């Protein structure tokens, strides 16, 4: 069972989100909050697994709210729900290790899937946001994939599918040590900071067909 709190300043939106997530027998809504202050008060009573956070909380900002919750010592996961987000906000969310970002325009089943992914300890960034997050900054980057060896490209595709090093090693018939070397080379050549960025890159470039795994 995944216990969640909904943090959104619009009552109708909160009700809509509650209706969607309550349709899953694996999700339980502990409570709702309209502001950072209300969320902190709820956290004095409950210990959620995930907090669904609106990016724009009236006079508050969702990213600031998340930082406030963390400073208070709470260790739950966070998923941002938003209708729009800037490139800088996306990058800031990633730098703060936010576990999930989902568009409010997503289908109900997409939101449920996103919560499932985050609850399992993985990150979920809405695929429709990938291209914005990883938009090329120069024409030279269009051909950057040509710098990867065939094996490094295979590793990049596997990262895009969310495979662990062990799973990549099994799929490509190589050792985990070799996988780590390939991952390091991929990150260096594509100027990416971690494997999450590599996965987002693969998705944004259409290298991996995004499929819901149930």
From TrEMBL:
This is Response regulator protein VraR. InterPro entries: CheY-like_superfamily, NreC/VraR/RcsB-like_REC, Sig_transdc_resp-reg_C-effctor, Sig_transdc_resp-reg_receiver, Tscrpt_reg_LuxR_C, WalR-like. The modification 4-aspartylphosphate is found at residue 54. PROSITE patterns: HTH_LUXR_2, RESPONSE_REGULATORY. SUPFAM superfamilies: C-terminal effector domain of the bipartite response regulators, CheY-like. Residues 3-119 form the Response regulatory domain. CDD domains: LuxR_C_like, REC_NarL-like. Keywords: DNA-binding, Phosphoprotein, Transcription, Transcription regulation. Residues 141-206 form the HTH luxR-type domain.
């Amino acid at each position: 069972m995944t216990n969640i709190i909904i943090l959104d300043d619009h009552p109708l939106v909160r009700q809509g989100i509650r209706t969607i997530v309550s349709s899953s027998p694996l999700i339980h809504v502990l409570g709702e909050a309209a502001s950072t202050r209300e969320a902190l008060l709820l956290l004095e009573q409950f210990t959620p697994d995930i907090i669904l956070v609106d990016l724009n909380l009236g006079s508050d900002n969702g990213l600031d709210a998340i930082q406030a919750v963390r400073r208070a010592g709470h260790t739950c996961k966070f998923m941002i729900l938003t209708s729009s987000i800037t490139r800088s906000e996306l990058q800031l969310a990633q730098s703060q290790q936010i576990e999930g970002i989902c568009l409010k325009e997503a289908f109900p089943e997409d939101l449920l899937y996103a919560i499932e992914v985050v609850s399992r300890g993985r990150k979920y960034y809405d695929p429709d946001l990938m291209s914005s997050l990883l938009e090329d900054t120069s024409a030279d980057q269009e051909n950057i994939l040509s710098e990867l060896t065939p094996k490094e490209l295979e590793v990049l595709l596997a990262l895009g599918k969310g495979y662990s090093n062990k799973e990549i090693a099994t799929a490509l018939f190589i050792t985990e040590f070799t996988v780590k070397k390939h991952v390091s080379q991929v990150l260096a050549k594509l100027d990416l900071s971690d494997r999450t960025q590599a996965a987002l890159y693969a998705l944004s470039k259409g290298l991996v067909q995004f499929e819901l795994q149930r």
